[in-house]
Amino acid sequence: MNTLIEFFQGLAAQVPDLLQPFIIAVAGAIPFIEGEVSSIIGVWAGMNPVLAGVAGAIGNFVCVTVIVVAGARARRAVVARQSRKRELVSTGSATGTGAAGLPAEDPSAHTPAEAAPPLAESADDVQGHGRLGEKAKPDSKGRAKFKRFLTRFGVPGASLLGPLAIPTQITSTILVSAGVKTSWILLWQGIAVIAWTTLTTLIATGSLALLAG
To answer: What angle do helix axes 49-95 and 182-212 make, rounded to 10 degrees?
Structure first.
């Protein structure tokens, strides 16, 4: 990660002034660099602090927006597919036929080991369990910490505190999979990106001024 930061810092210092904001924006879109670190890179590379902060925040938020919109569409597709499967099963049970129109088998003819596994109830189940029969993988420390934030403080608090645990790109996917409204996610993730980027930009500017003085 240090090598990547040094790469962007050197690149921003060498390219023309007009291209520097684009370099910082690209850095801001990368997890674990994001707007916070990319703004520091820009300031330490000699950019105007305001420009560095804005560029880093824009790059970070654009990446978050793409993830949220794409993730929400994927979740809706999964939920719709699971809903159709449940409707087919319920219709087949009510009419005495299976999903393909064949006579439904007698459930008593199956032993517990032969019984079909239940359908996933939501996109969370699909993501948590993967293929049917697979065990869910334990959450990383960062994910577990963010979920505690979400349970305790809701979406606003979790979005603001999330960067203390994991990148905003990952917190966004967790919020999407939890079924949070897209506009609500983008609102609070945007606020979080602006707040954290502003804070780190001020710290970078202050530290640079102290070193220069």
So the answer is: 160
Give the contacts of 173 (CB within 8 A, at least 6 positions apart). Answer: 67, 71
pLDDT digits (tens, 9 = 90+) for 52-78: 999 999 999 999 999 999 999 999 998
Shortest CA distance to 60 belongs to which of 202, 163, 206, 175? 163
DSSP lists the bridge partners of residue 103 as 97
Distant-in-sequence, close-in-space partners of 95: CB < 8 Å, separation ≥ 6: none
Q: How many C-beta neighbours within 10 Å does residue 166 have?
A: 20
The HSE-up count of residue 10 (CA atoms within 13 Å, CB side) is 6
Give the whole-angstrom CA distance, residue 69 versus residue 72: 5
Predicted model pTM? 0.72
pLDDT recorded at residue 93: 65
Residue 199, classed as helix, strand or coil, is helix
Q: What is the separation, in whole angstroms, between the first and last Cα of the chain?
A: 29
Can you tell me the distance from the alpha carbon of 47 to that of 50, in angstroms, rounded to the nearest whole number? 8
7: which 2 tokens? 């790469």
Percent of the chain scoring above 70 in pLDDT? 77
pLDDT tens track for 128-137: 444 434 456 7
CB 59 within 8 A of CB 35: yes
